[in-house]
Design brief:
The chain is mainly β. The protein is built from 15 helices and 88 strands. It is about 10% helix and about 35% strand. A hairpin with a 2-residue loop joins strand 9 and strand 10.
């Protein structure tokens, strides 16, 4: 009986010795993890080294053993520039030892696999692993379990080699899969894996670029362009397309890329390519593709974007015409291209993409990297051929999706449509960028943005491009010239997420400012300390291994999924800490030429709060972990995950419902014609239309009128009152007889003169013809049109009416918006007073001479002295505050503390936003999502003069360059040469011009220009404190796009005034991005001067076009305020209030000379508390007029109205019980209408 015991003891000793032997062979880094099993997950607590540093530490190659450097000679780049796209890196555990290994791709060197030994030492195991891939230009790599056997296989792409698959035998030795079904040719680049059809295995998308580039004169590529039967024919048609230019006979030849491949996984390392035209891919309209896209694919990411657990596809494509593809998974592996209502625009030369919830609102946003330099100098020398000036691109069409020559940051609006806000966020420029990714570097719970940059050959250098264009068109000359292009070595970048939709460059502070040419980048926890380290593949320099040295609190989560998706690719991991919810999706590949280790790392900024995690597995099952420990690694198994019914989100009915179909009306613009031709004045001919609401027929409900372009007619519409049949459209009102407009209309007001019926006052713009003849202001009735004011050199813009001289009738302000030959300085505005002869110039008109371009006007009693003051919105200037003192105005802008706010002010309105009885101001501006935003701290200067003596005053912008430490022109050499003809001779190269300061450029002009300054772009509320205005911040959504129209009303019926902004501006020069991130913004006031922006789903407002004027009215008489918005060259949008609380409609009736009671004010009292002050006015916002009928919240039986009539007399009127509509006439006559 003792022998078995002895045998057992000897067996245990043997097992113990074997265990010790195995442990001694394990990397020391792995031994640092002490796992504890807890049900279906295990955890390892981490010992985080204290550190004062945040960010990364570059480790020397000699200490790590990673002695790899990707090589590429200039001679080879000269023959094939596509090779300069570089190579990538993949991180993953190839031998199952628990530490991620590193695989690096080479172009003129073999690829290398480095086994992680722990403690930041690596062993080159390339030869014995069989993955050197000699004699090929390797581009991308991805380590993932392709065949579902539990180990990481290797996918490699190469130029002219397509895609290759190497299967892992579980020990880190690989064998290339024969018969994989992967295409072995083309210029393949990046890859991504995901289960697109919910069959459990991972399908593969491969982006293809092109093996050669026609600009390098490859052998065997001969292009022929000819005309056949009136159309242009190009051969070879599968490689080139001819685009018509502005010249009747001109064409521009565009080289096409190669088709990408989406492979269906058949198991056991076999794939089948899906047919692009077989019904699996649909265009934005839902039609099956008729031919495969031929794009220049650089990156692809497959992951769920819209929260339906189906992986979508985003493909980054290089060059103009090769637009990014955003494929939304419709289920069962069918994809539909995202249309203009989802994504408004794209980057032009897209390199890489990443997704993250950057503002922690629970919705995924995404960033796309391009190659705009951060330096003004380089922007002037790197001149991409965007062809915007050459081609007739429909940039003003809201359905068109333009390409921008810069990075884009697409912010999810909450309904999986996106607003592009890179310029507001400060991430629009990052040099020639390749890889980009979100990663929470400082572990504060917000993901930061990391990018690699540089290029072996700066092929955008304008001086070299000019040399090439003027050189002999031979192969030898081409090679010599290509060798002369400068090498572009730039720093890699990290932008810290500030948590407020802005980012700050922290590259140097966080140890990431290395200068060179960096391409692919991958992340992994290389030292098992629970944060993500980085490996970067550099061109002609050693690879970077960057250790993450931060000591912030973290939680790392790794997943073990069911076979064949053993890494749970596609799973969503959510970490909740107090109110902070972080989410990440496990991806495979998706990086520029690279692939990460599949691990999710979360920052824990408040470790004292309770932590919980939820995993939604790819098959829809869930796992939960409560009470997580900070500074720990969790490994979670799908075993035991449970299915549950996802709670359907509560669908809240929006505040407004789109009733635009009932109007069936649109503004039609004439073809663009900008006589100035300057970037600063782009879009001046398309600034309208305005909109006016008024009760024309006396039925108690307002009709609406929309301005028109030259040759059109003012559009009048009466909404059919048929709530039970919403399909009934509005009826058209004939207004102005059959006469057509001889000029574009601007402001429209509905004015009722004494002893006369209601008429429209319509202002006209003479900017395009510049003639001081014909009408500037017409009176329009249903049957006729008559001239009220003759045109002057100043083109009329805003118009407002008030009794400015206290004589009881209404006088007139006409704002000069622009002059044809001087848009900036000598623009005059004017007062006109009513007389028996009509409107005549008022005394004291010199106050308004030369005040500059006025865009908006409003009369409001801001000093509460019972006469109406005038506030003007001006371009390239401060607002203007003109205080009325018994009929005489004086400029008191400085006294009211607005003189320091120099903006691009468009519209102005007044409202009592903090319920104190004083009128505050709402002023619309360009918004911070604008080209000027990055220079705002040092002001943008506009140098104004007739520089070239052609009789036209021009404006030239200058900005402070922090790199050159001087003020430089904003625009490029070619643009300025049109205004400053001496530019070409003074600066014979782009580089010389790029380094010049503005004084040197303007010196030959002789005369000193006038300088206008810009220091604010914010659409702003200014609160009135009883003698001055104080700026108060609006929600950041108010700054997403230029705003024009602005209306004030109580939309939700809570007794506090809210605001509405009409947004967007498309008419920009070719160097400026279209401003299309607005939808029309509703912001609810809190009664204390604060506002909350409503999302699209909350407000129900989604105006995709260029909104201009807007007005508010209760069009259907239901006691709720509705909104009408006029869009330039687009539909008129009507939004009827659906869920606001029903209020009481109040109409004031004035005396004989002022029957509309313009200038009166009303406040409602409820239970002793006074609500906001309302004013009755004609002309406000942007070229528009709101309803004169006020809607007040239902105040109950004790509510009363405090009225100040235009003559300063006051009255207090109780609101009759149950009244829905009341009409109040002086003296205190109350009529219950309904």
């Amino acid at each position: 009986m003792r022998r078995p015991d002895a045998q057992m003891r000897r067996g245990f000793r043997l097992l113990f010795l074997l265990a010790l032997l195995c442990l001694s062979a394990l990397p020391s880094g792995l031994m640092a993890l002490d796992w504890e099993q807890h049900g279906q997950h295990r955890l390892a607590k981490l010992t985080v080294k204290p550190s004062k540093r945040i960010g990364f530490q570059l480790l020397p190659p000699g200490g790590t053993g990673v002695a790899f450097a990707n090589r590429l000679t200039r001679q080879l780049v000269a023959r094939n520039r596509n090779l300069a796209n570089g190579s990538g890196v993949a991180i993953g555990d190839v031998d199952g030892d628990g530490l991620p290994d590193v695989y690096l791709c080479g172009l003129q060197v073999d690829n290398r696999l480095y086994r992680n030994l722990g403690d930041w030492t690596f062993e080159d195991v390339t030869i014995k692993s069989g993955v050197a891939c000699p004699r090929q230009y390797s581009t991308g790599a991805l380590l993932a379990d392709v065949d579902g056997d539990g180990d990481n296989d290797l996918l490699i792409t190469g130029l002219a080699k397509g895609t290759r698959l190497f299967l892992n035998d579980s020990s880190g030795r690989f064998t290339e899969k024969a018969g994989s079904g992967l295409f072995p040719k083309l210029g393949s680049t990046s890859m991504s894996l995901a289960d697109i059809d919910a069959d459990g295995d991972l399908d593969l998308y491969v982006a293809n670029y092109r093996t050669t580039n026609y600009k390098d004169r490859p052998r065997g590529v001969n292009v022929e362009v000819k005309q056949e039967n009136g159309r242009v024919v190009v051969t070879p048609a599968n490689r080139f397309v001819a685009l018509k230019t502005r010249r009747n006979d001109g064409v521009h030849l565009v080289e096409l890329g190669e088709p990408d491949f989406l492979y269906e996984n058949l198991g056991s390392g076999r794939f089948r390519a899906l047919n692009w035209t077989g019904g699996r891919f649909l265009d934005a309209d839902g039609n099956a593709l008729k031919k495969p896209p031929l794009d220049w694919g650089l990156s692809v990411m497959m992951r769920d974007v819209n929260g339906d657990s189906l992986p979508d596809i985003y493909v980054c494509n290089d060059f103009f015409y090769s637009v990014d593809k955003f494929w939304i998974n419709q289920g069962r592996g069918v994809f539909r291209q995202a249309g203009h209502e989802v994504v408004r625009n794209f980057s032009m030369s897209s390199m890489s993409v990443d997704f993250a919830d950057v503002n922690r609102d629970g919705h995924d946003d995404f960033f796309v990297a391009d190659m705009l330099s951060m330096k003004s100098e380089f922007r002037k020398t790197q001149r991409a051929n965007v062809m915007s000036d050459e081609l007739n691109l429909p940039v003003t069409d809201a359905r068109f999706q333009p390409e921008f020559s810069r990075n884009t940051l697409q912010l999810n609006r909450g309904d999986n449509s996106f607003a592009e806000i890179a310029q507001l966020a400060g991430v629009h420029a990052s040099e020639w960028t390749w890889a980009s990714r979100f990663l929470d570097v400082d572990l504060d719970g917000y993901e930061d943005l990391i990018m690699t940059t540089g290029n072996e050959s700066d092929v955008l250098d304008a001086d070299m491009m000019s040399i090439v264009a003027n050189s002999p068109q031979t192969k030898e000359s081409h090679l010599q010239n290509m060798m002369r292009f400068p090498r572009l070595e730039t720093p890699n970048l990290i932008f810290r997420n500030e948590g407020n939709l802005t980012f700050a460059d922290n590259s140097s502070e966080w140890g990431f400012g290395q200068v060179g040419i960096s391409n692919g980048m991958a992340a992994g926890d290389l030292d098992n300390d629970g944060d993500l380290d980085l490996v970067i593949n550099n061109l002609n320099a050693p690879a970077f291994l960057l250790e993450n040295v931060g000591s912030g609190n973290r939680v790392a989560i790794r997943l073990r999924g069911r076979a064949p998706n053993t890494s749970a690719i596609g799973a969503t991991v959510a970490l909740k800490s107090g109110k902070l919810l972080q989410k990440q999706i496990v991806i495979a590949g998706g990086r520029y030429l690279s692939g990460d280790q599949p691990v999710c790392v979360f920052g824990v900024p408040h470790p004292g709060l309770s932590l919980s995690a939820e995993i939604k597995w790819p098959d829809g099952s869930f796992s939960e972990i409560q009470n997580l420990t900070p500074n720990a690694v969790y490994e979670v198994s799908q075993i035991g995950a449970e299915f549950r019914s996802d709670k359907a989100p509560n669908r809240v009915r929006p505040l407004f419902e789109d009733a635009s179909k009932r109007l069936n009306a649109a503004h039609v613009e004439n073809p663009r014609s900008d006589p100035a031709g300057s970037p600063v004045t782009a879009g001046l001919p398309e600034l309208g239309p305005g909109v006016c609401v008024a009760d024309i027929d006396g039925d108690g409900l307002d009709e609406l009128f929309v301005g028109a372009a030259k040759g059109g007619a003012i559009l009048g519409l009466k909404l059919a009152q048929a709530p039970q049949n919403e399909s009934i459209t509005a009826s058209n009102l004939t207004w102005g007889g059959n006469s057509k407009l001889i000029r574009d209309s601007t402001t429209i007001l509905a004015h009722k003169p004494p002893s006369s019926g209601l008429a429209l006052l319509a202002a006209l713009s003479n900017y395009e013809d510049g003639l001081a003849v014909g009408s500037a202001l017409n009176s329009v009735t249903s049957k006729s049109t008559r001239q009220v004011l003759v045109a002057s050199l100043d083109s009329a813009g805003p118009v407002s009416m008030a009794d400015i001289d206290g004589d009881g009738d209404l006088d007139l302000f006409v704002g000069g918006r622009v002059r044809r030959n001087d848009p900036f300085l000598s623009v005059n505005s004017a007062f006109y007073v009513a007389s028996n002869e009509g409107f005549v110039p008022a005394a004291g008109g010199e106050l308004l001479e030369g005040i500059g371009a006025v865009s908006g006007s409003v009369f409001s009693d801001i000093d509460n002295d019972s006469d109406l003051d005038l506030i003007l919105a001006r371009q390239w200037n401060s607002p203007l505050v003109l205080i009325n003192e018994r009929g005489r105005f004086s400029d008191q802008t400085a006294k009211w503390k607005l003189s320091g706010f120099h903006g691009l002010w468009n519209g102005v309105n007044a409202g009592d936003f903090n319920n104190d009885g004083r009128m505050d101001l709402l002023m619309t501006n360009a918004g911070r999502n604008f080209r000027y935003n990055e220079y705002l701290a040092q002001e943008i200067w506009l140098h104004v003069s007739d520089f070239n003596q052609d009789g036209v005053v021009d404006g030239i912008e200058s900005v402070w360059d922090p790199y050159l430490t001087k003020r430089v022109p904003l625009r490029d050499r070619q643009s300025l040469a049109a205004v400053l003809p001496w530019i070409a001779g003074l600066f014979q190269t782009h580089r010389a011009f790029a380094r010049a300061d503005i004084e040197t450029l303007l010196e030959p002009a002789g005369a000193t220009p006038v300088i206008l300054k810009l220091n604010t772009l914010d659409t702003t509320v200014f609160l009135n404190d009883g003698g001055s205005f104080k700026k108060t911040g609006l929600p950041v959504e108010a700054q997403f796009a230029p705003a024009f129209g602005c209306s004030v009303a109580d939309f939700d019926g809570d007794g506090n005034d809210d605001v509405y902004l009409a947004q967007n501006f498309f008419n920009v020069d070719s160097e400026t991005s279209r401003h299309d991130a607005g939808l029309g913004l509703v912001m609810l006031g809190d009664g204390h001067g604060g506002f909350r922006a409503l999302s699209r789903t909350e407000s129900g407002v989604a105006n995709l076009g260029q909104a201009r004027g807007c007005a508010v009215s209760d069009f259907n008489g239901d006691g709720r305020i509705d909104i009408v918005t006029a869009q330039n060259n687009d539909r008129v949008k009507l939004h009827l209030n659906a869920t606001g609380s029903v209020g009481v409609r109040v109409e004031l009736v004035g005396g004989e000379n002022n029957p509309q009671a313009v200038g009166a004010s009303v406040r409602q009292e409820q239970d002793g508390a006074l609500g906001p002050k309302r004013e009755i006015r004609l002309g406000s916002g942007y070229w528009s007029k709101d309803s004169l009928v006020q809607v007040f919240a239902d105040g109950g039986s004790r509510a009363k109205l405090h009225i100040t009539w235009p003559d300063a007399s006051v009255a207090t009127v109780p609101i009759p019980n149950s009244a829905k509509t009341i009409k109040i006439s002086k003296p205190d006559e109350v009529q219950i209408v309904h």
